[in-house]
Amino acid sequence: MGFFITFEGIEGCGKSTQVRLVAERLSRAGHGVVVTREPGGCPIADAIRAILLDARNSAMVPMAELLLYAAARAQHVAEVIEPALAAGKIVLCDRFTDSTMAYQGFGRKLDRELIAQLNSLAAGSIRPDLTLLLDCSVETGLARAMARINTSSAAREERFEQESILFHERIRDGFLSLAAAEPGRFVVLDGSGGIEETEALVTEAILARLPASPARR
């Protein structure tokens, strides 16, 4: 089996940038790496992502949102993550089940036991070997996220950025609670610094946990 690393955190914490940098570093070292994201990662899940993150869908009720995330994850795991791990690859995933618990459980205040059941149904036996939580203040994260959205030529994925500060504070608290409950899997890193500073922290955390004989091409 391969090695499954997930990157978590609030909006604008720097996950996506660090996933890209880690992938480049590991690939240069000769590792077989698969980079993916949630929601999305394959055509069907990407179509669901477009629905979930479109600000025009503000009328979406929390339960519909939760079920769409579960549907996207089931397809993503079956089509991308499980085959990559079976092939011995290192899988780097921008968000996974912890985001669902933080956003829909702590943020939306949906039943966390139900969310845990849905996460298990969608992910099957797949669990992260290592989860890096990039932590920063809500104000810092949202400012970064909106700056990215406003300068991007891609579709505006901003449904969550338009939520209240209190909503995002609950999410951050949720992530930190999840990390405290599973210290063996989580590594909490300061995501408030610059890209290079954060990259050094991420690299150190991964190299300390990566198996001695990792997957290679």
TrEMBL record:
Pfam family, one: Thymidylate_kin
Cytoplasm recorded as keyword: no
InterPro entries in the record: P-loop_NTPase (IPR027417), Thymidylate_kin-like_dom (IPR039430), Thymidylate_kin_CS (IPR018095), Thymidylate_kinase (IPR018094)
GO MF: ATP binding; dTMP kinase activity
Record keywords: ATP-binding, Kinase, Nucleotide biosynthesis, Nucleotide-binding, Transferase
Catalytic activity field: dTMP + ATP = dTDP + ADP
Matching CDD domains: TMPK
Keyword ATP-binding: yes
Residues annotated to bind ATP: G9, I10, E11, G12, C13, G14, K15, S16
Residue intervals of the Thymidylate kinase-like domain: 7-200
GO biological process: dTDP biosynthetic process; dTTP biosynthetic process; dUDP biosynthetic process
Top-level taxon of origin: Bacteria
Record GO cellular component, one term: cytosol
Enzyme Commission no: 2.7.4.9
Task performed by this protein: Phosphorylation of dTMP to form dTDP in both de novo and salvage pathways of dTTP synthesis.
Membership in a protein family: Belongs to the thymidylate kinase family.
Protein name: Thymidylate kinase
Source organism (scientific name): Geobacter metallireducens (strain ATCC 53774 / DSM 7210 / GS-15)
Lineage: Bacteria, Pseudomonadati, Thermodesulfobacteriota, Desulfuromonadia, Geobacterales
Gene name of this polypeptide: tmk
